[in-house]
Amino acid sequence: MGASKVETLKSMPRSYLLAGLAALALVVVGCGSATSQSRSPGDPPPSASPSASPSPSPSRSTPATPVSWSVATSATAGGGMKPLIAAAKAEGTLNVIALPPSFANYGKILYTFSRLYGIKINPINPFGSSQQEIAQVKQTNGDQAADVVDVQTPVAIANASLFAPYQVTTWSSIPASQKAPNGAWVQDYGGYMSIGYDPTRFGKITSLNQLLSHKFSHSIALDGNPTQAPSALYGVMMANLALGGTPGNISAGVSFFHKLAAAGNLVSVPATTPLTIKSGSTPVVINWDYLNTAPVVGRSSSSWKTFIPSDAAIGSFYAQAINKNAPHPAAARLWEEYLYSQTAKGGQNLWLKGGVRPVEQAAMAANHKIDSKLAAPYPTLTGPATFLTPAEVNAATKYLKSHWRRAVS
Q1: Rounded to an integer, what distance in angstroms lies between the CA atom of residue 5 and that of residue 102?
Q2: Which of 102, 168, 244, 392 could form a disulfide with 340 if both were Cys (CB 3.0 to 4.6 A apart)?
Q3: What is the mean pLDDT of the chain?
Q4: Angle in degrees, 0-180, between the axes of helices 329-339 and 81-91, rounded to the nearest 10
């Protein structure tokens, strides 16, 4: 993923953009009480009681003396979900930052949370970057500070000392590799690098080596130059892992793309929008799976397939975190509970509806709480997923800058 959500936003389908903007327009007006807003069919009832919370009930017993929400590391530690909801409603406000309403269905998510709990959303710098989120947390105190952040995972790891550890009630549904052990940060949504292609033209593709065939002449595209575009770098790394390379050494991936270029199969046109697929100039696209499924690229399921090479799942996810000095600590924690809720109106399914993979997708598929229709276009993962560390990204970037141009020219 790029340096900010705005970069990914540019590739999102127009339908997501319009729906998100319309939803946030309602939220920004304010939701002082849930009954003050008009309802649409399917919306949660304005007078939803605490028992209607989309978050599952804690399995741990309530402590004899609940702690303050400003230091609670779980809903149970603060007395349970009912006290958390009551405290969040009493605070009445949630400050969020860098959440574009047209990105990942955030407009609908913000609107639904606000209506469900009667909490006003205060959006700060909606189109900001991860680093701008961190700067705001460091530089702003009091009521105007962001309560929560949604940042790239490397940024979350590097700034974990700024965050309040918190484990949502669906904690066990989040893979261990996608969260800090103490809950200081938790990945929320993202995707895996994939290969999308037109099966009516090429037949079924299941491995990278097939792409070296002459029938793929002038057909295969990355999403930009890997020395500059993170998504393209991850595409090279996916090939690297599939061919036996390691996250710390991307040379096998570069060697593979050298072979593609030598065979005349690699095109210089960056596959940045569905238009290049529609025009036929990029009939094979290496890109994030949430930008590479048939519905997103505007093709039918029979004319566009997506797969992830065996044992080469490489992911990139954003991460949630709570400001340890959050001015609305209960609302911040309730927001996290809502985002990781697996109900139909909870954050996990709403992210999926917004075109990105929710972090609890595997668990939800197993317990039948996922919207199976929305999940169907995503390719299957085989083997454990790999998440690059900042050091591995830096090493790969350095190698590409020294070797990529010569490899593909």
Answers
A1: 10
A2: 168
A3: 87
A4: 120
Tell me, letter by letter, the H, E, C secondary structure of the chain.
Answer: CCCEHHHHHCCCCHHHHHHHHHHHHHHHCCCCCHHHCCCCCCCCCCCCCHHHCCCCCCCCCCCCCCCCCCCCCCCHHHCCHHHHHHHHHHHCEEEEECCCCCCCCHHHHHHHHHHHHCCEEEEECCCCEHHHHHHHHHHCCHHHCCCEEEEEHHHHHHCHHHECCCCCCCHHHCCHHHECCCCCCEEEEEEEEEEEECHHHHCCCCCHHHHHCHHHCCCEEECCCCCCCHHHHHHHHHHHHHCCCECCECHHHHHHHHHHHHCCCECCCCCCCHHHHHHCCCCEEEEEHHHCCHHHHCCCCCCCEEECCCCCCEEEEEEEEEECCCCCHHHHHHHHHHHCCCCCCCHHHHHHHCCCEECCHHHHHHCCCCCHHHHCCCCCCCCCCECCCHHHHHHHHHHHHHHHHHHHC
Strand partners, 75: none
Tokens of 38: 């008009």
Lowest mean pLDDT among 92-96, 169-173, 175-179, 276-280: 276-280
Please give the structure tokens belonging to residue 12: 């999102």
Of 31-40, 190-199, 271-280, which one has max mean pLDDT? 190-199
The reported pLDDT for the residue numbered 35 is 34
Which amino acid is located at 332 in the chain?
A
Whether 296 and 274 have beta carbons less than 8 Å apart is answered as yes
What backbone phi and psi angles, to 5 degrees, belong to 223?
-90, 65
Going 61 to 67 to 69 to 73, the CA torsion angle's sign is negative
Mean pLDDT within 12-17: 43
Which structural domains are found in the chain, ordered by start? 5-41+67-190+316-375 (3.40.190.10), 192-315+379-408 (3.40.190.10)
Tell me the one-letter amino acid at 119. I
Integer Cα distance of 212 and 390 in angstroms: 31
- CA dist 145 and 308 (Å) reads 40
Alpha-carbon span 111 to 127, nearest angstrom: 17
Closest CA to 361 of 169, 193, 191: 191
Q: Is residue 33 over pLDDT 50?
A: no
Question: Under a CB-based contact definition with an 8 Å cutoff, are residues 84 and 348 in contact?
Answer: no
Amino acid at site 223:
D
CA nearest to 104, candidates 336, 292, 350: 350
